[in-house]
């Protein structure tokens, strides 16, 4: 996590163009919509216009595009011609979903692209392209604009690409979906990174970290199942969960009361009901949950239901670990899972002291 002290340190490194900070941080410039390396030769932005990220993926998901001057993802001294070519291809069509035939047309082996991106940026090419595409959509959510087909206002060359990216992920514009229901999506900044919340006027449907694996598919399934268009906006449940998240991360709240709308099979809902019953500061195993449901052999199905949860933190799937005591998987990342469990243990300890 980047602290206030780190931000000041990184900003000074940006002003001084210190090369030893290469790979340590990236800076997103709010006035231009680009993100840069620490040694970018461009005119330096004001501190209040800077946002700092530890990885390129975080900057992409925050809707920043690579700077054309310092080329943070394709600098000749750092990456191969294959990576440079693919980065340029994504920038030409940022809303595109890549398939095998697209690599063939560029005369690039898909496995080579995956390996080289993973080595250089700690993410595969598909993850990079997805982050760029999702960033375009999340920019609209973050800005809170009411009309999803509005023209871009801060530096993106392709307004149509932006609209296409948003529509593919969030659904058709309201004008094209008069018979559909409308869900609202909002960007919520938290201590562990930004989250996206989706709700109607009555209940919360989805709450996930924006860099969660598979989030794009989750949103797509949600809008298909509900036959909804998802547009930027705020509803009462979104206001409620934002307030509760603040209290949760401050250590003053452990039980969420925001109304929820659960979409799943009866078995999945029974698993989620068990998750909510796990007290903060405690954990359960998949096999333990299966036993509590009276189906001790269904631990794999329990694990799948756990992974299908679309309401992070509120339905605490992070409290489920392997029978061996290992953390196991978590869509938001094991670093977050470890932090959450420790945070809740500390909450429990403080409660006992009082």
From TrEMBL:
EC number: 2.1.1.63
Protein's UniProt keywords contain Glycosyltransferase: no
Listed GO biological process terms: methylation
SUPFAM superfamilies for this protein: Ada DNA repair protein, N-terminal domain (N-Ada 10) (SSF57884), Methylated DNA-protein cysteine methyltransferase domain (SSF53155), Methylated DNA-protein cysteine methyltransferase, C-terminal domain (SSF46767)
Keywords: Activator, DNA damage, DNA repair, Methyltransferase, Transferase
Pfam family, one: HTH_18
SMART domains: HTH_ARAC
InterPro entries membership: Ada-like_dom_sf (IPR035451), Ada_DNA_repair_Zn-bd (IPR004026), Bifunct_regulatory_prot_Ada (IPR016221), HTH_AraC (IPR018060), MethylDNA_cys_MeTrfase_AS (IPR001497), MethylDNA_cys_MeTrfase_DNA-bd (IPR014048), MethylDNA_cys_MeTrfase_DNAb (IPR036217), MGMT_N_sf (IPR036631)
Domain HTH araC/xylS-type as annotated: residue spans: 104-180
Domain of life: Bacteria
Enzyme kind, highest EC tier: transferase
The reaction(s) this protein catalyses: a 6-O-methyl-2'-deoxyguanosine in DNA + L-cysteinyl-[protein] = S-methyl-L-cysteinyl-[protein] + a 2'-deoxyguanosine in DNA; a 4-O-methyl-thymidine in DNA + L-cysteinyl-[protein] = a thymidine in DNA + S-methyl-L-cysteinyl-[protein]
GO molecular function: methylated-DNA-[protein]-cysteine S-methyltransferase activity
NCBIfam families with a match to the protein in the record: ogt
Protein name: AraC family transcriptional regulator of adaptative response/methylated-DNA-[protein]-cysteine methyltransferase
